[in-house]
Amino acid sequence: MMIDTGTLGFGSGERAVYAANPWASRGRMFPEEESLTRSEFQRDRDRIVHTAAFRRLKHKTQVFISPDGDHYRTRLTHTIEVAQIARALARALKLDEDLAEGVALVHDFGHTPFGHTGEDALDEMLKPYGGFDHNAQSLRVVTKLERRYAEFDGLNLTWESLEGLVKHNGPLLTKDRKGIHGPVPQPIRDYCELHDLELASYASLEAQVAAIADDIAYNTHDIDDGLRSGLLTFEMLEEVPFLAGLMAEVRGRYPHLEPSRFAYEVTRRQITHMVEDVIGVAQDNLKKLKPQSADDIRAANHVIATFSEEMAETDRRIKKLLFSHIYRHPDIMRIRAGATQIVQDLFKAYMDDPTLMRSHYWVDHIAGLGQAARARHVGDYLAGMTDTYAIKAHAALFDHTPDLR
Question: CDD domains given for it (predicted)?
Fold first, then answer.
């Protein structure tokens, strides 16, 4: 994919007409005085970084359960890597870098302990009460569960940051001849009744680059962690022609490179090619659309920042590789089974006796609530746990806790 280097943004002060404008934000649910030193999106990003939810990402699984080793990605290191890629894309496309970075930093706030395994387990337990969705949980965290400010619950983020959090992967509702329809997680539906995030439209281009940055980051870094763990080999990477080509390039230039340096040279090229592909596609889409505002991006009815058809096929092949050799590996599946048991056991224990959730600020009120409301509080409590805290909590209540090593 060819890039128009003449239109690239290299200075943080450049902003295109289609970029989100922090000085013309749609505002916050609770009005606040403007800052003398920071834009509204800078304030959002800073609030996100200073949360307990952000710190807890340090001990939440990305792929490999955190006790497995200090060198594997956690949700926190993954999040930082996503933010770096999102900011690079935003700068190249002359977007608001602070908004793109903020959406990237907050996008995984709702993830449970033990990665997608914990989410699947919690969703199963909450099925009778509306289920569990990590994106909806992220919204609950930043609008309700973070309790630090004197005048409101949550972080009181701008409309644009909340829109990006909820819709970075696309609209939640579909517009067609039958009208506007589609399943929306209840927490998102409830919030939008108070503060409409326009679920049938696409999000800003800043949110879109945060979403594609997430794909680029985990595709690349799950390969890196897989090689480090031994579940992946360089020979396995040959299954993907794109990766085979990168390895041939590195071997040709550095024929005697040690494995760890070889792996890094391959993955850094992978990121570069994917980022440049997205920039080229986005530039082509922008030339066709000719947007004059951020709302023109929202009304485009298609994604602007995405992969080319060729890179999208590479993306599918990489995901297939990761699923077959890592995500469904017998060792990982054994650990996933143990993690599922921990989440399910804790959910049942807390539903039976909410007073066991000693650090939950609603614990004194939960006993009088109905089952659905109680279950949602238990879900909030469990989703906020780190891997290490969940393991300790289980060990304190049960005679046997699965070994997740």
Answer: HDc
- State both tokens at 82: 């996503």
Q: 129 and 248 in one domain?
A: yes
User: Confidence band (pLDDT; 50, 70, 90) for 11?
Assistant: low
Q: Residues in the chain, how many?
A: 405
Q: Tell whether 133 and 224 lie within a shared domain.
A: yes
Contacts of 324 by beta carbon, 8 Å cutoff, 6+ apart: none
Element (H, E) at 363: helix 363-366
62/72 same-domain check: yes
What is the CB neighbour count within 10 angstroms for residue 358?
A: 8
3-class DSSP state for residue 154?
coil
Reported confidence tier of residue 68, pLDDT bands at 50, 70, 90:
low
Place of tokens 């701008």: 158
Question: Are 322 and 336 contained in the same domain?
Answer: no
Instruction: Tell me phi and psi for residue 315, to 5 degrees.
Output: -60, -45
Strand partners, 61: 74
* Per-residue H/E/C for 301-314: CCCCCCCCHHHHHH
As given in the structure block, the two tokens for residue 188 are: 């998102």
Q: Determine the straight-line distance between the first and last CA of the chain, rounded to whole angstroms.
A: 43
